[in-house]
Write a structure and sequence with these properties.
572 residues, alpha+beta, D-Maltodextrin-Binding Protein, domain 2, Dipeptide-binding Protein, domain 3, 2 domains, 5-stranded mixed sheet, 23% helix, 18% strand, globular, disordered N terminus, signal, Peptide/Ni-bd
Length: 572
């Protein structure tokens, strides 16, 4: 059973590094010259790339980071068994080998996964990377003082549920075997065909036990990637990375490592970041951001400037904004009421409230509209772009509310254009046409999250959103609709409290598949089956629009992250 409790942190982080939390049409060759602007478009080595971010890169320890595909800035220092394919659009949603020679060899019905390390792998001090280092890196991620990473391994590995890490339990995890210096074997509690995706998480980074100094390791983690940390100020607010001379492109075909130095500066206001990237003066000419979108007003200004418009990267990340229902709360216990709201919603007005079609794409499926998730087009309650209030009224009458009804919609007061007042107001206006009076309950963001993620306090009708840990239907559908993941005394994400045996069984059956294309088709079919229950009303998928400096080259934006991949960037 997947543990989703930490997964939703990427609601905000989706746009950061995936995550941090920020395709097919990505930017790259279609929106821009994929090799960058300027007279000489060929990417060259050298120079300094500046990264301007609002959120600091805190807890720069592979055990504590919650990233998929290795992250963005983290992936420059930490290599993992597998990683994301660093290509534009849909091609970038594939998992590929990193430290390992392949994406893993399953056996015993995908309950055992074996990896072999490439030859010639070295740390920044020239010492060889071994399978024992990867085992130790995973084990230390279980230590309570290094918490924060993805929770899957505690669930998936045999006997790992109560493990407290190597500082307290030096015996380690018997579910991870290292028969020799280049082989590592994982024993799982149940079949997991998507284990290669999990092996992209930074917890799979090798850590030499002799260099581990616990919570201080983040100050100078030992690099297995093309760059090493030479400065980490104010817990990731200012990071400076320089070349790891022992890294070799011969054993790493994913990271190009063009710049000599990566200078990451965080804690900046989003408007300041966009102003600096727009002006592109001095060092900002060779600058990017991995966590700051253009807002509606900024995008309108940029779109009117040909030079600026050519420096906007467009990306898509697996993410859905939706209306959620709690069917234990009246009148939402009546499926016809939920269906009526689905028909009444005006998605065109919601998209406008989210910043317009350049920043949001209308959604009728819970799964994002990308092949890797298993996207299967469907609309169980077809009402067109503007809704169908007449059909909604008809269903309300059948439900016993021929004179309409009054409901309360809970939302966040955060100005995020996702679960914020603008979206709530658009829903309110649309439902009014169907005879549904909507009272708005806006909460501060922490109060909002606490309320909607507790079975005891969950409202009947609220705005929500979800981002995937990796580009597949599994981490998208299971946490929200697997009845075995309902958490009664903690953070709960199965907001519809669905516990349907046929749904649970199908999740288990798909998890056994190691053919990810076949699995994707099954996730798409399951999405359609669940969608017909009207436990959620999908509203829109966000689109990321981000500026980059005029001297930045080789723009790659994959559907895995939805944001510019700094491991591929070069500067003029």
């Amino acid at each position: 059973m997947r543990q989703p409790s930490a997964i939703a942190r990427r609601v905000a982080a989706a746009s950061v590094s995936l995550v941090v939390a920020a395709g097919a049409a990505a930017c790259g060759p279609k929106d821009n010259d994929a090799k960058g602007s300027g007279g000489d478009s060929t990417p060259h080595k050298g120079g300094t790339l500046t990264v301007l971010n609002s959120e600091p890169q805190t807890d720069f320890d592979p055990a504590r980071l919650y990233t998929s595909g290795g992250g963005n800035v983290p992936s420059l220092v930490f290599r993992t068994l597998t990683t994301r394919n660093r290509e534009n659009g849909a091609a970038g949603a594939k998992v590929v080998p990193d430290l390992a020679t392949d994406t893993g060899r399953p056996s015993r019905n995908a309950t055992v996964w074996t990896y072999t390390l490439k030859k010639g792998l070295k740390y920044e001090d020239g010492t060889p990377i071994t399978s024992a280092d990867i085992k130790y890196g995973i084990e230390r991620s279980f230590a309570p003082e290094l918490s924060g990473g993805a929770p899957y391994l505690r669930d998936w590995l045999v006997g790992a549920a109560d493990y407290q890490g190597p500082y307290k339990d030096k015996k380690g995890l018997s579910a991870i075997e290292t028969p020799d210096a280049r082989t590592i074997v994982f024993q799982l509690d149940k079949p997991e065909g998507e284990f290669p995706f999990l092996a992209t998480q930074t917890q799979f980074t090798p850590v030499p036990q002799s260099k581990d100094n616990g919570t201080k390791y983040e100050e100078h983690p030992v690099s297995s990637g093309p760059y090493k940390v030479v400065k980490n100020e104010n817990d990731g607010e200012h990071l400076v990375l320089t070349r790891n001379t022992y890294w070799s492109a011969g054993v790493d075909d994913q990271r190009k490592a063009y710049p000599d130095t990566i200078d990451v500066r965080s804690g900046l206001d989003s408007s300041v970041i966009n102003q600096r990237l727009s002006a592109s003066q001095g060092t900002d000419a060779a600058a990017v951001t991995t966590d700051t979108n253009l807002g509606p007003a900024e995008l309108a200004k940029v779109s009117g400037d040909k030079e600026l418009a050519a420096r906007v990267g467009t990306g898509h990340f697996g993410y859905t904004n939706y209306i959620a229902f709690n069917p234990t709360v009246k009148p939402f216990d009546n499926p016809k009421v939920r269906q009526a709201i689905a028909y009444a919603v005006d998605r065109s007005s919601v998209v406008n409230a989210a910043g317009g079609s350049a920043l949001a794409e209308s959604a009728t499926t819970f799964l994002p509209d990308q092949k890797s998730f298993g996207y299967t087009p469907y609309d169980p309650f077809p009402a067109g772009a503007s809704g169908n209030p007449a059909k909604a009224k008809e269903l309300l009458a059948q439900a016993g509310y021929k004179n309409g009804l009054t409901v309360t919609l809970t939302h966040s007061n955060a100005k995020d254009f996702e679960t914020s007042p603008e979206i709530a107001t658009a829903v309110q206006d649309a439902l009014k046409k169907a005879g549904i009076t909507v009272k708005l309950q806006g909460l501060e963001n922490n109060d909002y999250r606490d309320k909607i993620h507790s079975v005891k306090t969950e409202p009947g009708f609220f705005l929500a959103h979800w981002g995937a840990d990796w580009p597949s239907g599994g981490p998208f559908l299971a946490p929200i609709f697997d009845g075995r993941q309902i958490v009664k005394d903690g953070a709960n994400f199965n907001t519809g409290l669905l516990n349907d045996t046929s749904v649970n069984d199908e999740i288990d059956a798909i998890n056994k598949l190691t053919d990810l294309d076949a699995a994707a088709k099954r996730w798409g079919a399951l999405d359609k089956k669940i969608g017909e229950k009207a436990l959620v009303v999908p509203l829109f998928h966000p689109v990321y629009k981000r500026l980059y400096g005029k001297d930045v080259k080789n723009i790659v934006i994959s559907d895995w992250t939805g944001v510019l991949d700094i491991s591929r960037v070069a500067v003029k």
